[in-house]
Design brief:
Length: 411
């Protein structure tokens, strides 16, 4: 006897399970099965497809004629951090740009100050609010970065909070050490990078990936290469915040270093985008950040996909450059500003997002996969990127158990 059957699914979105990220034209392929059911046993999918009488289950979850998909995968967040930076909005209004605010000791360094001051429990409680909201929005796999400590005690504090979140919630997480995220006041980039490289050994106990912010006024390509090589020698797979604002050639460095992902890429070069197609590096695009920074130029998703590259999407949730934990909103911005198709978007927040954080068993619903499912209050899969700024998640099922159900009004 199976544990649970999810019935009355109007249409079931089934991204293709693949041992590599979907690239190019593959990204626009998306299997959708009408009048579907999902059968689950011991938290794993037994069957997901057309309605059949072949299976029985002791419990039924009614999808009420709504659509369903795998739970979403969020491959890039800075969810563990202290404080907030709403005061910077007035600087933005006055036209002070992101890197200028950082240069003046604000931005990331402001969050560093607030994170260092915050106790472990305070950071855990604060991030728990965001993880809860992400779950309510249909996300059950989350990547979480350090990078607001910039010293051993506080970088490890952030990573330990990240690990505690995974213990606390029925989700899967990936943890990323981002020691080289900014340069503390009074320090020189090269010598500070040496200190962050030395921290790799300590971070290895908690982190799956090593990430670096390669940007003007932060770390150069050469400094980043040194860090990525050291991290790989210590067994990390690497990530990079690349070509977010200035075209430094971060994407080329990512591909050279066989990075699992290169993130941002708004200013990626034609050469880098060409190389992407022949690499296994996933381009994680963060259009919410471009929107939030008030930029007009968005990452060239069309060029990357039509060039044969693998693209994923994420919120980049952080207190300064993209303050949203709503991945559905990013799906809408991807449709409107990255010109991605609905099928590409769905693959970018499921199977490709999973590959961007080495979580290939997430983001799909084939037999044996974790039974992480979202029932959406939407007529079809195109509706979610179309109707933006709201939460379309109706029921969220984690490992076959109902974890969240949208509450009705009480009146
Ligand atoms: O500003 C922040 O706190 C997060 C960020 N790191 C690199 N780009 C944005
Ligand atoms: Zn980021």
């Amino acid at each position: 006897m199976n544990d649970v059957m999810i019935k009355n699914i109007k249409s079931l979105i089934l991204p293709k399970k693949s041992d590599k990220p979907l690239k190019g034209k593959e990204m626009d392929e998306l299997k959708i099965v009408d009048d579907a059911v999902i059968v689950v046993k011991d938290g794993k999918v037994v069957y997901a497809g057309e309605k059949t009488d072949e299976y029985e289950a002791s419990e039924v979850i009614d999808a009420e004629g709504k659509i369903a998909s795998p739970a979403l995968v969020e491959p890039h967040t800075h969810v563990v951090h202290g404080g907030s930076r709403e005061h910077e909005m007035s600087l933005k209004r006055q036209g002070v740009d992101y890197l200028k605010i950082l240069e003046q000791g604000g931005g990331i360094l402001n969050t560093v100050e607030q994170t260092r001051k915050a106790a472990f429990d305070e950071l855990l409680e604060k991030a728990s609010v965001n993880i809860t909201r992400m779950i309510q929005h249909g996300v059950l796999t989350v990547e979480s970065k350090s990078g607001y400590g910039l010293d051993k005690e506080n970088e490890l504090k952030q990573l330990k909070v990240s690990k505690a979140l995974e213990e606390k919630f029925p989700i899967t997480m990936r943890h990323t050490y981002l020691g080289p995220h900014a340069i503390p006041k009074g320090r020189e980039a090269g010598e500070f990078m040496e200190e962050m490289i030395e921290l790799l050994d300590d971070a290895k106990e908690y982190a799956d990936f090593a990430d670096v912010f390669t940007e003007t006024g932060v770390f150069s390509v050469e400094e980043s290469r040194k860090y990525m090589e050291a991290a790989r020698e210590k067994g990390f797979r690497v990530k990079i915040h690349a070509d977010e604002i200035d075209p430094l050639g971060g994407l080329e460095l990512a591909i050279e270093q066989k990075a699992v992902s290169a993130d941002h890429l708004v200013a990626a070069s034609e050469e880098g985008k060409k190389q992407l197609a022949d690499s296994d590096t996933v381009a994680v695009l963060l259009p919410g950040t471009t929107f939030y920074l008030g930029k007009n130029e968005f990452a060239d998703a069309r060029g990357m996909i039509e060039g044969g590259g693998a693209v994923s999407l994420a919120t980049d949730y952080n207190p300064g450059s993209c303050v949203t934990d709503n991945l559905q909103m990013i799906m809408a911005i991807a449709a409107l500003k990255l010109k991605m198709t609905p099928n590409e978007i769905w693959n970018a927040v499921t199977v490709n997002a999973a590959h961007a954080i080495d979580a290939a068993d997430r983001g799909t619903l084939e037999a044996g996969d974790d039974a992480n499912i979202v029932i959406w209050d939407a007529p079809n899969h195109e509706y979610i990127p179309y109707h933006y700024g709201v939460n379309h998640a109706y029921k969220v099922i984690a490992d076959g158990k109902l974890l969240y159900e949208r509450p009705g009004l009480k009146f």
